[in-house]
Design goal:
The chain has a domain at about 15-200: CAP (Pathogenesis-related Protein p14a). The protein contains 10 helices and 9 strands. The chain has helices at about 30-45, 60-70, 100-105, 125-130, 220-235, 255-265, 280-285, 295, 305-325, 330-350; strands at about 15, 55-60, 85-95, 115, 120, 140-150, 155-165, 195, 195-200. The strands form 3 sheets. The protein has a 5-stranded mixed β-sheet, sandwiched between helices. Strand 6 (about 140-150) and strand 7 form a beta hairpin. Helix 5 runs antiparallel to helix 10. InterPro entries: Allrgn_V5/Tpx1_CS (IPR018244), CAP_dom (IPR014044), CAP_sf (IPR035940), CRISP-related (IPR001283). This is SCP domain-containing protein. Keywords: Signal.
Amino acid sequence: MLWGTALLTGLVGLYVIVTQCPATCQLSQEDTETLMELHNSYRGQVVPSATYMRKVKWDEKLKILAEGYAVKCMWEPNPDLELLNMGENLFVSNEPLDLNMTMEKWFLEHLDYDYNNNSCQEDRMCGHYTQMVWADSHSVGCAAHRCDTIEGLSFEKVNFLVCNYYPKDKFKDEKPYEEGEWCSKCPDNVPRCDQNLCGKNSAPINHTTPPPPPPPFNSQHYLALVSNFILSNLTSPDVEEPDALEPSEEPDVEKEITESSTPHREPVYEGDETGTEPGDEEDEEETGTQPGDEEETGMEPGDEEEEEEWEGEERAAEREKERTRNQPPANAGRITTPLLLVTSLMALLSVGL
């Protein structure tokens, strides 16, 4: 390939190679990937080495800005980028664009750059290089356009490549990066190092054995755990029913009946108030107890009515117990709902399996 003479326009970041491009000069997806790989590859090869150099990523907004400027076909820096803290590199060719060659040309400017003095050799350009390897730059977007003519140059039918960077370099004020051991000063927000570059999606700086992967999800085991948890809570005697009524809300009928009938259920022995025991009847005969004495020593008047009242209350208690036995358990609804939940989980997991 024949190379034309580089045009030294005095503008840092401008470089012309007289090459040619097809009728339509658009960057493909493969081209954008190539540009990304080349940028990061060269950034990881700087001499001297860098303590901190960001891995750059493709940015569609920067690409759109580059497209908007490329169609203007103007061979001068974009004045709008200064206010946006964006940098740029420009390239012109009258042959099909060779991105590998273009990136190499920009990077080879390091031969004309003095790191110690942070300056270019006299009458030489190195601005493409300093922008390409600016440590803080983390985003790049490029675009190409076919220009019949280009303002500022006498060439016709050329292809114009524009690459925008964020943030821009400050070549006049400071060095593009700090010299030192690779990745020794990667910040906390980009604490990983890959091919001498700091980045979030790179491998860890301190390579350690990764932890073993978690065991595969076992749906049957999970279902068994859920089922056991639900059923154990239903049958646990320590679980307090959330909707249980307080004693004041629902009186204990059986307890109330028992307390009211307790005097009538104590053994009452026929005899006098001195507590005649069973088997004393023979003694009564020996002592000459008369038949009419029962009224004096037996049941008092009114005891028959109390006995009938007690029998009626006992029958009422039996009816209450019968009614209670016919009612469903208080937690029947609470048992049914979790069981339905378990059944639903089994159905869903069986479908997923």
